[in-house]
Backbone:
């Protein structure tokens, strides 16, 4: 990357094992499998890995309401009013189920996002793979998201004195929580590419601070190239951001069980790299992606490309790397539907 410093990967052991169970789309192993894969390929040096700490209650209150933070803290208390949690704060619904250590994980998510944002100020690209909870609202959970780590990262940059920041979201779902958080702030430009008629069914129109591109099911690589060259990159060049936060968008890849976009890993990676090149300060969050084979391969190939001297991506993965991918499971993807290329190559 242009910064001249090696990229950093920010994570925490809490994110390495899924907390969701059953048929929830996030009952899949992604971040832990990615780190295993990078280590197996010798692509993750010890000084490139950083662990953040949990955000304090005071920090969470910078965006979330006190009542909602109270609800998160009490969610696993056996005396908690589950009906109130579900109806008022959307905690304990099918989309946002309760799980052990809920508050710990959400606080760590925000704390690690803030650590990543601060490290990015060193002008080195920082990849926070567990991040990307772009639907989180100040007063409630939404769309698998209990907090909103991109909002905290962007706000941190503003607090540190930056005045032109871009948030570019390649997730198949509209980044509604982030857009709404900065709707009246001209210092932040939100750009979202997302699938039409897909939850949360917002982002159909652009505003002075948000450019929305709702694309049809089947949206593919040539269409992405046109959108990028004719709209997204020119908009970034006009805005001239000092920093960019990018949502990597693994659920925009072909083969995701929840979404209908049809992008390839090389095309999406090229779009991400072109976007990141538009600012000297850059950070990436993982976001959606409910096909774990796609998510892990996409993130690994992206990490390889971020290096000062990019790691060459092998035509066929070594057996130890293949084994990591072969052991993945997804409740919404039967083993019979696992494509051979998901197991033996990155892109």
Residues:
């Amino acid at each position: 990357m242009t910064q001249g410093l090696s990229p950093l990967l920010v994570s925490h052991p809490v994110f390495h094992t899924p907390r969701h169970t059953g048929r929830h789309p996030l009952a899949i192993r992604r971040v832990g499998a990615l780190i295993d894969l990078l280590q197996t390929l010798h692509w993750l040096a010890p000084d490139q890995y950083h662990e953040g700490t949990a955000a304090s209650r005071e920090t969470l209150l910078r965006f979330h309401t006190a009542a909602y933070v109270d609800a998160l803290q009490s969610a696993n208390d056996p005396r908690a009013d589950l009906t109130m949690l579900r109806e008022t704060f959307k905690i304990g619904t099918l989309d946002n189920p309760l799980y052990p250590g809920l508050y710990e994980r959400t606080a760590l998510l925000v704390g690690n996002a803030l650590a990543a944002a601060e490290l990015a100020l060193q002008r080195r690209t920082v990849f926070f793979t567990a991040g990307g909870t772009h639907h989180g609202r100040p007063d409630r959970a939404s769309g698998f998201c209990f907090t909103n780590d991109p909002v905290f990262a962007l706000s941190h940059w503003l607090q540190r004195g930056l005045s032109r920041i871009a948030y570019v979201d390649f997730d198949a779902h509209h980044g509604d929580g982030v857009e709404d958080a900065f709707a009246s702030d001209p210092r932040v430009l939100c750009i979202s590419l997302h699938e039409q008629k897909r939850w949360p069914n917002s982002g159909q129109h652009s505003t002075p601070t948000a450019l929305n591109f709702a694309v049809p099911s089947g949206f593919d690589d040539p269409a992405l190239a046109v959108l990028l060259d004719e709209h997204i990159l020119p908009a970034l060049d006009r805005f001239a951001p000092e920093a960019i936060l990018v949502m990597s968008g693994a659920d925009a890849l072909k083969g995701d069980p929840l979404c209908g976009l049809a992008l390839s890993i090389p095309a999406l990676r090229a779009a991400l790299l072109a976007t990141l090149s538009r600012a000297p300060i850059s950070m990436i969050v993982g976001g959606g992606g409910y096909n774990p084979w796609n998510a892990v391969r996409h993130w690994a190939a992206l990490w390889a490309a971020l290096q000062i001297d990019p790691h060459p991506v092998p035509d066929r993965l070594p057996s130890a790397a293949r084994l990591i991918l072969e052991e993945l499971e997804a409740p919404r993807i039967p083993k019979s539907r696992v494509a051979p290329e998901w197991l033996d190559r990155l892109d």
